[in-house]
Amino acid sequence: MNIQFLGATREVTGSCFLLHCGGRQVLVDCGLIQGSKADEARNAEAFPFNPAQIDAVVLTHSHLDHSGRIPMLVKAGFKGPIYTHEASLDLCRIMFKDAGYINEKEAEWENRKRERKHQPLLEPLYTVQEAQAAMHRFRGMVYGEKKEIIPGVTIRFRDAGHILGSSIVEVWLDEGSESRKLVFSGDLGHRGAAILRDPEAIKQADLVVMESTYGDRLHRSWEETWEEMAQIFIQARKGHGNILIPAFTVGRTQELLYTFARHYEAWDMGRWHIFLDSPMAIAATDVYARHSDLYDIEATKHAHEQGGLFSLPNLTFSRTALQSMGINQISDGAIIIAGSGMCSGGRIKHHLKHNIWRNDCQLIIVGFQARGTLGRALVDGTDSIRLWGETMRVAAKIHTVGGLSAHADSDGLVNWHGHFEGNPLTALVHGEPEAMDALEERLISETHARVITPGQGEQLDLLAL
Fold first, then answer.
1. Which residues have CB under 8 Å from 40's CB, separation 6+?
2. pTM for this structure?
C-alpha cells in the first residue's frame, strides 16, 4: 500500500498521484503541465506507468492542471471509470473539447513550419474526437456520497469551495487487515469568495495531501478588495480607455460577472459595455447557472431576487471570431473578459495587441500567474511583450488584485489543516518552492505538524504511517 507523487511536486501544475492498494492502482488527478514552452513540452512525454493497468481515476475538479491529461490517458489505453463531482463532469465536457480544438490548431500551425523544413510532423496531444471519447469514462457523484469504486478503495467528495464541483477527496484504503485514510485537498477555495460555500473541514486522516499555492502570502480582505476594484473603475473612467481582464474561463469569470452584478450601482457598472469574449466561458457560465444547488446563501438569495446570478443589462456574450474582432474597434468604455487566464493563449492576446500599448488601458490580473507565462511577465513589470513576432511596448496600467484569488491564502490553508485531529502526516504539493517552504515552516512552528514536500516520482509507504 503506497502513494507515488507524479505531479505538482515543487510546482503548481500537473497534479497526479498514484495509489497502490491490494494489487490495484488508482490515479488521483491527471493534470496538464502549464507554464513555459519547455514546461508544456513535458505533456507529450509518456506516462510513468501503464495506463491500461490503472483501475480507476478520481478527479478533484475540472481545471486542466488537474484534469487535462485524462484524454491522453484514455488514448494510451486506460479503460476504467473516472469519478468526479457531477458539476465537474459537466465542466470537463466543455473544457476537454476546447483543449482538443486548441491542440489540433497548434499542431497544424507547427506542422506548416515543419513541412517547409522537411522535419517530422507532430501529432496533437489529443483531438476533439479523443477528448469527447474520454467523457464516456466519467461517472458523476455528489458531495457526501460514499462509494467503493474498486475492491478495497472507497471515496467521498467534500466541497472544496474553489470552483463549481471542486472537491476535497477522502480515500479509504483496505488491504488485508490494514486500513489507511488519505485526504486530498484538491484546490482549496478562498473563504468568503463569491458564489460558492467555504471549504469543508475534515477531522480524520492518516495522510493529508495538501495544496500550497499561496502558502507564502495573505490575501487582502474582501472589503479592501472591493475598494481596490472600485478605484480601478474610477481611474479607468477618467482615462477614457478600455479594461482588459484575462480570466480563467471556469470559476473566475463567473465570480467576476456575479461581483459586477452585486456592485452594479456602487461601481457605476452601467457606464461600461461588458463583453464576455470566450465561447468556453459562456458555456461554463451556463453550467454554473444549472447547478444553483451548490451556491452559498448570499448567491442563492441574489439569484432568486434577480432571476439569475449573472443578470447584467449591459453584458454581451461574444461567441464568434467575427464578434470578437468587432470588439477591437472599441477604444473606450469596454470591459473585456477573455481567456486565457495567464495570457498564454486565447482571445485575450488579440485584445492585448490592440490595447496594451495604450496609456489609457487598464489590465486587471485576477488570478494566479505561473512562471514562464505572459501573464507572469506582465505582473513582474516587463516593459515590452512579443505577440505573433511583433514587439509591443507595455504602456497600460497593470493591476494585480490578489484578493480575488480562488485559492486559500496562507491563513486559510493553516486554518483548514488545523481541523485535523491526531497530527496526521502532511505532504505539501501544488506550490512553487518558496510558497511550499513557507507553508511548511508555518505548519511546523505553529501547529507542530509533521510535514514532507515530496519530489517527483517519490513513493511513500502508507503502511509505515
1. 32, 33, 34
2. 0.92
